[in-house]
Design goal:
The chain is mainly alpha-helical and 133 residues long. The protein has one domain. The protein contains two helices and two strands; from the N terminus they run H-E-E-H. A two-stranded antiparallel ribbon has the order 1-2. A hairpin with a 4-residue loop joins strand 1 and strand 2. Helix 1 packs antiparallel against helix 2.
Length: 133
């Protein structure tokens, strides 16, 4: 940033020296008026007007970037909220998965017990059939 100010100061000095070296009067013609003025003054006024225009363009760019920055911050906040919601949903889904796993383990145990019970009943049934024969 300081380098920019140094270059601007050097440029302003060069324009001022150039303007002072060209001090002869010139005729300036506007749409409805014509008058004589020093060329140095025309050069200095033109440089000043250019600096003002450049300043406004820079200001508009900063305002535009400010709006962009604000919009980006709003998007970041929305995305952070979505990330938090997704994390919460993931935690809930993980808890539900654990409950479902526990239920499956319980049902698997019940199936194993029922299978053993069925196997015993079949053995008893076969034993009874063998005795009847």
């Amino acid at each position: 940033m300081q380098l920019t100010y140094i270059f601007a100061l050097i440029f302003a000095l060069v324009v001022a020296v150039f303007a002072l070296l060209n001090a002869q009067p010139v005729t300036v013609d506007f749409a409805f008026n014509e008058f004589q003025i020093s060329l140095a003054l025309v050069i200095l006024i033109s440089a000043f007007a250019g600096a003002i225009i450049l300043g406004f363009m820079g200001l508009f760019r900063q305002v535009k970037e400010g709006f962009k920055f604000r919009d980006m911050n709003m998007r970041i906040k929305k995305l952070e909220e979505q990330l938090k919601e997704t994390g919460d949903k993931l935690a809930i889904a993980g808890a539900e998965l654990e409950v479902a796993k526990a239920g499956l383990v319980e049902k698997d145990e019940r199936i194993r017990i029922l299978a053993e019970s069925l196997a015993k009943e079949e053995e008893e049934k076969e034993a009874v059939q063998d005795q009847e024969e």
